[in-house]
Amino acid sequence: MMEILRGSPALSAFRINKLLARFQAANLQVHNIYAEYVHFADLNAPLNDSEQAQLTRLLQYGPALSSHTPAGKLLLVTPRPGTISPWSSKATDIAHNCGLQQVDRLERGVAYYIEASTLTTEQWRQVAAELHDRMMETVFSSLTDAEKLFIHHQPAPVSSVDLLGEGRQALIDANLRLGLALAEDEIDYLQEAFTKLGRNPNDIELYMFAQANSEHCRHKIFNADWIIDGKPQPKSLFKMIKNTFETTPDYVLSAYKDNAAVMEGSAVGALLRRSQYRPLRFSSGARAHSDEGRNA
């Protein structure tokens, strides 16, 4: 079961005015915006009055909740279904540490109430696009739609790709259907390898192959040799990027090692406590120069 708890206002007046200005610049006749946090509790059992009050207190933060009833069209922005936000992980852990074991998960969204002139469907899509990051978030039209955040799907069974029966086209279709982004030579390699094995590949094997050989892992394009107008180029794309470090390595201790870099820092002062057995205390004025102040 899911419980909905209203939260504090999510946007300052400054942020609201910035949004309104962006809508006006896009010729979207939006007159007013109100936004507030909304919390969704996925419960495995009902809460009693004491537990309900405790959960309500946990989710009270930020400015006081507006007492008015929000007006306008609701656009609810939440994390994408199938993902768990960092806020959710922290909040759920806090709830469990407070003894609220009935809470399977807490999640948070932002409810935008948009007051606008008559907008077309496409214009509403533009409004929604301004309010969320589609890589990490989604937009619902009602609060109860947030139940989709807590749906638990059974793992799909392994499926086989009929390479032996359908030939290369089976891999081409699977490449598109599964979003593997396999290159032509990779499809050729898979066809040859599984034909020699005398069996069909399954979707798990294709996913694993695509991930292990992706540009993100292998940097095939970034490390490739380039020939432009018939002339081999001295540097790959990756070497061009690294050229800055190779030319001016000053103060760089490590670069391009496991997606990280370390630079040399400057000397800074540090405060060290005199005793690990007593609370640290600082003094000012005459007392600071006394034995009491020095021994603090």
CA radius of gyration: 29 Å
Mean pLDDT: 90
Q: In terms of per-residue confidence, which ranges show pLDDT below 50 for 5 or more consecutive residues? A: 287-296
Q: If helices are DSSP runs of H or I spanning 4 or more residues, what is the number of helices? A: 11
DSSP strand count:
9
Globally, the shape reads extended
Q: What fraction strand?
A: 15-25%
Structural class: alpha+beta
SSE string, helix = H, strand = E? EHEHEHEHEHHHHHEEHEEH
Percent helix range: 25-40%
Quaternary class: single chain
Q: How far is it from the N-terminal to the C-terminal residue, by CA? A: 55 Å
For the largest beta sheet, what order do the strands appear in spatially?
1-2-4-3-5
List key phrases describing it:
single chain; 296 residues; alpha+beta; Helicase, Ruva Protein, domain 3; five-stranded antiparallel beta sheet; two-stranded antiparallel ribbon; 11 helices; 35% helix; 21% strand; extended; disordered C terminus; Phosphoribosylformylglycinamidine synthase; nucleotide-binding; ATP-binding; PurM-like_N_sf
